[in-house]
Amino acid sequence: MQFMRYALTGGLATATHYLVLFALVEGLHAVAPTAAMAGSLCGAQVAYAGNLRFTFARAQSRHRRAAPRFATVALLGVALNGALVWLGSALGLHYLLAQGLATLAVLVLGFRLNRTWSFS
C-alpha cells in the first residue's frame, strides 16, 4: 500500500517534472539534460510535500529531520536523472525516451532511500 501511495505522489511529481522538461526543451530550446534536471528539481518539491503528508504520513519523521534527508535523496536523483538523460541522448535516444528510462531508475532508488532513511 505504501508503494502505491508513493507511486501516486510520484505520478504527480513526474507530471510536473515532464511539463517543465517539455516546456524548456520545446519552448525555450534548452538542452535536454539541463531541462531534465530543472524538471526533476520542480518535481522533487511536489514529491516532498506529497510524501511528507500522504505517503509516509504515519512515519515518526518530522519536517526538520526529513527535509534535509529528502533533499539529499532528491539531489542524488537529479544527478542520476541528468546523467541518464545525457547518456541516452548521447546514444541517440529521443530525450523523452531517455527521460522515461531515467524516471524508472530514479523511482526505484528514491522509494528505497526515502522509505528507509528520509521518512523513517
Report on the structure:
Belongs to the GtrA family. It is a multi-pass membrane protein. With 120 residues, the protein is mainly alpha-helical. It has one domain (2-118). Helix content is 86%, strand content 0%. It is elongated and about 45 Å long.
Structure summary:
The chain crosses the membrane at residues 7-25, 31-49, 70-87, 93-113. It comes from Roseateles asaccharophilus. With 120 residues, the protein is mostly helical.
Biggest beta-sheet profile? none
Number of domains: 1
Q: What is the number of helices?
A: 4
What's the N-to-C terminus distance? 16 Å
Overall structural class, as computed from helix and strand content, comes to mainly alpha
- SSE succession: HHHH
Keywords summarizing the entry:
120 residues, mainly alpha, 4 helices, GtrA_CellWall_Glycosyl, transmembrane, GtrA_DPMS_TM
Please describe the topology of this protein.
Elements: H1 2-28, H2 32-55, H3 63-90, H4 95-118
Helix pairs in contact: 1-2, 2-3, 3-4
